[in-house]
Amino acid sequence: MNTYWETKPPKDDLDARYDHTALLPGHEYFFGRNVLFIPHANIAFLNDITKSVDPILFPLVLAEIFRGMFGAVDRRGATVDHNLAVATWWNADEMTRLRLEDNIADNAIIGPLHDMYMKVLMSQDGADRLKISVDDRRIDMEQLFFILYAVGLCDNPNREAWIRKLKFGDIPGRLRVNIPLMNFAKFSSAFSCTSGMPMNPVRKCTIW
């Protein structure tokens, strides 16, 4: 069995210190201590597949980590400054406009995640120029990034399930995929989306 991490010091049982279960993918950010907890479930599916995290796995493995890191600068971390002192460094307007943490994080991480993926891929002797066949269609490695990113947010497409999600303040996977990608110019370029189409609007909402 591969070991991806061990608690340290040994026998510390760090998983028991966090509200988020270690058995489900996700993250938990503690703004008071500037600590990000990433449960083993985020990488458990790799146990019998690989001992390393290859670039093609970045959209599946690193997206949740990036979302958690963004917690340091969104509303969750807006009441603690860089010295971990209690201090509000957001103004009232920002608090009002940027209150939907998950939505903002999804839009914020897609650019850095894509850049890291392409940078590592291009360092591997032409790996970025490879193409693979999916359902009789040839796709390149940049297109594969966006497909795998979407796979990481797959959920039950049932309308009733979506309504239940919305009632609990969660956003259906379809929206969490489409909205960040329609606002990301490199997605439109990778799939040659015509300007003005739903996935390539003329006016985009960007974070950076």
Structure description:
It comes from Rhipicephalus microplus. With 208 residues, the protein is mostly helical. The chain has a single domain (14-190), classed as Collagenase (Catalytic Domain), CATH 3.40.390.10. Helices cover 37% and strands 7% of the residues. The protein is built from seven helices and four strands. The protein has helices spanning 58-70, 92-97, 101-122, 141-151, 159-167, 173-182, 185-190, and strands spanning 28-30, 35-37, 131-134, 137-140. The strands form two sheets. The chain has a two-stranded antiparallel sheet with strand order 1-2. Strands 3-4 form a two-stranded antiparallel sheet. Strand 3 and strand 4 form a beta hairpin. It is globular and about 50 Å long.
Broad shape: globular
The count of domains is: 1
Mean pLDDT: 79
Order of helices and strands: EEHHHEEHHHH
How many helix segments? 7
CATH architecture: 3-Layer(aba) Sandwich
Structural class: mainly alpha
Could you name the ranges where pLDDT drops below 50 across 5 or more consecutive residues?
94-99
Share in β-strands:
5-15%
Instruction: Compute the separation of the termini in Å.
Output: 41 Å
CA-based gyration radius: 19 Å
Assign the CATH class. Alpha Beta
Query: What name goes with the CATH superfamily?
Result: Collagenase (Catalytic Domain)
Helix content: 25-40%
Q: Outline the biggest β-sheet.
A: 2 strands, antiparallel
Give the assembly state of these chains: single chain
CATH fold assignment: Collagenase (Catalytic Domain)
Organism: Rhipicephalus microplus (Cattle tick)
Pfam families: Peptidase_M13
GO molecular function: metalloendopeptidase activity
Protein name: Peptidase M13 C-terminal domain-containing protein
